Amino acid sequence: MRNPLMIIVAAVVCLLACEKDISVNLQQQEEMLVVEGKFESNRYPQVILTHSLGYFSHIDPAILLASFVHKAVVTVSDSTRTMTLREAVVNVQGLGNIFAYIPDTSIPFAAFKGKPGNKYTLRINADNKSYESVTTIPQTGFQVDSIWWKLVRVDDSIRARLYARITDPPELGNYARYFTRRNSDPFLSSLNSTLDDQVVNGTTFEILVDAGIERNKRNINLDTASLFNKGDTVTFKFCNIDKATFSFWRAIDFAYNSNGNPFSSPIKVQGNVPGALGYWGGYQVTYRRIIVKK
């Protein structure tokens, strides 16, 4: 009788003998403009412009700093007015100083804030190319009725889950994205930050509000990342958005959650700035605040 172990060893040797080095020539993608533009209700717009980086590019702070696009001409218009955004150094909580295009509020009548129900056109001229995108700050949409918390035990500690009760109007086609802020931390989105009314149209329903996470961090504990601690002051930022903004962020969430999963379906992140990557989005914002008692 043959020794089974020897058969396995012989099979492994044969496989090793058949190994062949394979070189894959990955095509370099053309550098593209990346737009991250938002216009919230009762706030001024902000547009961040960068150049895209290769998927396998080495990334460090110097490379990220060099990716910002300078000296672009950026304007935002409604049906009657146009404001020019100027490049400035903006401090973003959690990120530090970055370059962004914002209106010059020191000049009277040179800037205007976002208003629900209005449509806004973003125009960009950068690197001798022109780009244009349109977004709307919704007039109506989901309404946040209330928020509350419940204590749960996880990892031998007591934490809290946050819930919200929301009412959807009878008209189909409402979209939203939400953020949370813990104490004085920055507003962060959760792993699944978007919702629509395809299933809940015209009803009052409850959602589980996951805590926002810092997506640049590694080794996130998914068992506790969505929870809050006793004593936290939580600010819930709920935003009604248009369909294009919803589709962009839903795809981003899906891509992030499926990263590294060999069984997930491929997805293309569809922005709403033709010729560029990214998005220009309007947000109708509502805030709610709650304290998780100790």
What is the CA-based Rg, rounded?
Answer: 24 Å
How many β-strand stretches? Answer: 15
Put simply, the count of helices is 3
* Strand coverage percent: 35-45%
Helix content: 10-25%
Low-pLDDT sequence parts: 1-17
User: How many strands, which pairing sense, and closed or not: the largest β-sheet?
Assistant: 6 strands, mixed
Structural class: mainly beta
Strand order of the largest sheet: 2-1-15-14-10-11
* Principal-axis shape: globular
* Mean pLDDT, all residues: 86
Q: Give the H and E element order.
A: HEEHEEEEEEEEEEEEHE
End-to-end separation: 71 Å
What does this molecule look like?
The protein is mainly β and 294 residues long. It has three helices and 15 strands. The protein has helices spanning 4-17, 61-66, 243-257, and strands at residues 33-40, 46-51, 73-77, 82-92, 96-103, 119-126, 129-136, 143-154, 157-167, 175-182, 188-196, 204-209, 228-229, 233-241, 277-291. A six-stranded mixed beta sheet has the order 2-1-15-14-10-11, covered by helices on one side. The longest helix is centred in the C-terminal third of the chain and has 15 residues, at 243-257. It is globular. Residues 1-17 have low confidence and may be disordered. InterPro entries: DUF4249 (IPR025345). Pfam families: DUF4249. This is DUF4249 domain-containing protein. It comes from Chitinophaga flava.
